[in-house]
Amino acid sequence: MHIPVLQKEVLEFLGPKPNENFIDCTIDGGGHALAILEKIKPNGKILGIDADPEVIKNLKLKIKNFEKRIVLVTDNFANLKEIVKYTKFGQANGILFDLGMSSWHLEESGRGFTFLKDEPLDMRYGANELTAEKIVNEYPREEIERILKKYGEERFAKGLARKIVQERPIKTTFQLLKIIKSSRIYSPNRVFQALRIAVNNELNNLKKVLPQAVEILESGGKIAIISFHSLEDRIVKKFFKEEFQKGTIKILTKKPITPSQEEIKNNPRSSSAKLRAAMKNV
Ligand SMILES: C[S@@+](CC[C@H](N)C(=O)[O-])C[C@H]1O[C@@H](n2cnc3c(N)ncnc32)[C@H](O)[C@@H]1O
User: Fold this and answer.
1) Which CATH number is associated with domain 110-199?
2) Global pTM?
3) Which CATH class is domain 7-100+204-280?
4) What is the largest CA-CA distance in the chain?
């Protein structure tokens, strides 16, 4: 089960009040959304978005009691303005992003997000055509090296990219793991992370959605973003700075908020989390 990360802090920054409306752009199991829903009762609504149709299907079964106050949509948050239009949701008092994959993806999706299980190399959240299998089998060596270096910050990217190309075809996580182990790389984590970010175009989606989110916020509305990768955090930091300079937002987190030692102990997945929040100027 996915344990929501920095939940107390998210609620503090978003400050949901009775009858306000919120958008959770990465709703997954609804860990954050259900806590917000409790604070915005009796009439506040949530628009919950996830790119993954299976995630939305699972959540629909879980939220039967709240159905009237949650609108669930399977879509990419990069289409946020479009989504708000076709659901007729209107302006929001707060918008949340809790980026990346969830524990469900690792533990249950069967799509090759983890090297701890032998699964096909898929790694998609949504309906995009690109898979991890396509990257490792069809991309030129230079492009694989670029992905490993940029998204995985992998020092030995060149050697590994060469090995990947030599060992083709590569169909499963365990095949890839064997290749990683035979190179000088200690942790396969970053290789898997790099492929996942590339497959799902994660950094570009984040860049696309941030200006849309600020537009959709009510004056005085808040935006909170939890990231798990330094490149994501950099995008958020830069965007906030630019919007602040334009006079659109006030930054609520001078430095990113990180989980306490206790939270990391209880939920090791939270260890790389960084939360930044801002308020749209009135
Ligand atoms: C870390 S989980 C969110 C967990 C959730 N906040 C909770 O506490 O239960 C991130 C979710 O975002 C979804 N996701 C990632 N990128 C997305 C995108 N571009 N558009 C929509 N959903 C996305 C993933 O499918 C995943 O379910």
Assistant:
1) 1.10.150.170
2) 0.97
3) alpha beta
4) 60
